[in-house]
Amino acid sequence: MEQVVYRIRRFDGEKEFWQEYSFAHEPNKTVLWGLLKIKETADPSLSFVAACRSAVCGACAVRVNGEAVLACETPLDALLGRFGATLVLEPLGNFPVIRDLVVDWEPKAVRLAEAKPWLMPREEFSAEAGCRQTQAEFKMINAQTNCILCGSCASECNKLSMGDDDFYEPFVYTKAGKFVADSRDGLAAEHLRPVLERGLWKCVHCQECVAKCPKRVAPAEDIAALRRESIRQGLTDNQGARHALAFAGDITNTGRLNETTMAVKTDGLLKSATRLPFALRLLRRGKLNPFHFPAPVEGIDGVRAIVKAAKEAKE
Amino acid sequence: MQIFDVLVIGSGGAGMRAALEAGTRGGLSVGLMTKMFPTRSATGMAQGGINGVLGNADPTDTVAKHIFDTVKGSDYLGDQDAIAFFCGQAAAAIREIDYYGVPFSRDAKGQIAQRNFGGQSAPRTCFSADKTGHVILHTMYEQCLKHGVKMLTDRQLLDLAVDGDGLCGVVALDIRTGRVVPVKAKAVVVATGGAGRMYWSRTTNPFTSTADGMAACFRAGIPLKDPEMVQFHPTGLAGTGILMSEASRAEGGYLYNNAGERFMVRYAPEKMELATRDLVSQAIETEIREGRGFGEGMNAYVLLDLRHLGREKILERLPGIRDLAITFEQVDPIEAPIPIRPSCHYTMGGVDVTDFRTGGTALAGLFAAGEAACVSIHGANRLGGNSLADIMVFGKCAGVGAADYAEAQGREAGGGALETKAAEWEARLAAAMARGGGSSVASIRDRLAEAMWNKVGIFRRGAEMAEAAAIVDGLTAEYERCAVGDDSRVFNTALVNYVELGNLLTMAKAVVLGAVNRTESRGCHLREDYPARDDVNFLKHTLVTLTGSQYELSYRPVVVTEHQPAERRY
pTM, whole model, 2 decimals? Predict the structure, then answer.
């Protein structure tokens, strides 16, 4: 391969357009190297941001062929081997675009602040004496502290791409989860409440945030941990928790779901009633039988043993 | 026009610590201006740790030892009153940020873990794996969010505005709109970081370390102190200059030349790889020069070997280092040694701070902290782990200093000087954007870096530096006619790069001037034509001041209290 082509989705503040740039291939270079090459030798107007060029500042995340990556650490040769000589570069998804590959973080910072991402130290600690924490407790938060706020998880989040009214960027949950998990923090509920109010139970488990995080942070797992902790703290007066508890109850009791009672347990009788037309359609097609109360499946003891083991493993 | 009581420029550890301090006081309007998003700052790249005498790993450690290590590390160019103050505050600053939420690695008792670091007589470097700066930066950001500090992101500092009565505020480029905006402030804290990008590709610094605050203060008449003192970190990756933390040596890494020899035995027989950064950098470059390196010319290197530490320790203590080596040098340190070479790392010099307790400068209302400032506690060579401590201690001091000043200052500055300055810059930037022809910003920048690396790098000679001075002058003239290449008003990063290059040229000229005239070798400043330290003539700080268009040179004695200069051995 002698020439590499970047096909870039550009935006000048008013209109969007595509532009292709071609430059000579060199081995062992990165996506960012290519962008700098274009800016310095072909088109100074191509706009993107980068700072540390060592994968710790989070500035240079962009989408290459539909996947968010840190431009500075992503080897060009691997991408060229996978996609061929032309790469498609776009700004991160689920962000307002300012120009070309530059996205707007200001609204994200406002949303992040809503989750109160700061330590609320326990009373026995003080600014003068600092805190205590065991090595094991430190390990509980070490992974989440790797988040560099690059926005890759937000870019690829399938839930967020349906609108951000009822869901936060995945990194917001990671930040909240870090403090809930921090043994130095004494007010877990303060971190839980804002994320419970916006989307904690609405993650669709697609795992894109886990797959695309360049720092091996796992927001989906942090979301799961926040859910468990919210139930442990008795914050169960919400649709998501009720659904999870009903689900767990059904599995423990019979080894299978009871769709009829599930809706009532999750949404309450009143709200379930609004779904009556939907239920009637299901009935007509034979997908729902309100008079069927399933007996425990064969081998229910085994199912219950698994549920018990799973609970013990997490606590 | 935006108006603040306290305006902090720069969102690294020092800037955010200052903004936090001023912001939590109550009753003051505080702004934090940064040219990117706050967490992109160079602080986040600091890996190894933060120094303070907690006595967790070694109960016999004392503040007196930290003071002596720092004084000796500075090659006696640090001011001893400031160093004593700094070392006395460091432990409290660390406990305080533990309380703010910095996730420190812990010892078996649940206390903050501490490890050895270069040039220190006790294990006093606190850390969070090898991402200490990153977690401090993010914790500071979290605290700024908590306290509602007003953040002005995507704004490039252009100049301070001063009238007959004093400081009025700053003018900045709003990168989003392409407009020059005046911002009025009673007190300003400059915490814009270092100038490592003078050496462009041979630096560990981010693209943003371009001397913005140093140059702006210099143009406002505040001296630059000890600009010639530029630290080269011994272990930058050979290909890219990216930092391999000092933790890699502190945890027990070895340095080898092409004969398989641990060559530090000839330079620092006691401390070996754990000698100070200046000595290890000079040793590596000597090996390369004398043919005991690998590769040739700009591609030469020596090897950093971590393999004997074992897989477990590398994964536990140096995971970030390993990732960087794999990604950028295609080497897994568990299996193979890492090719490394010194890389410009830190600007010990900077804005002349005249009151270390407040970060105050010669201009009333103007405070400086962090790498942009020169207090001076680092003198001619900074110890690893002292910069994170510096930004926490002196960032806070500057926040207090600026807040006190703003409270005491009844006068609301006039807007005249701000408007005038803004109009000047608006015209200048418009002309630069409209200009065709001329050299590109990148071409001038690359030639500057080449001249600085080859002639004002680790080894220095008067004749070569005179050549460098002429090259910098030539490039400065070229810069006046250079092309930005983009006339958009929307997020014009080419225009930002143009402004940054102007600052780098300004700083580089001061670096060369200071270096040419310091006819001795001290710390990082190694004159081959003057190999000895000269305490009779040079136990003093260089001050470079702009008078009209002239760079004027003067000196100020170093503050020596209890430690008389002595021979420095490791």
Answer: 0.95
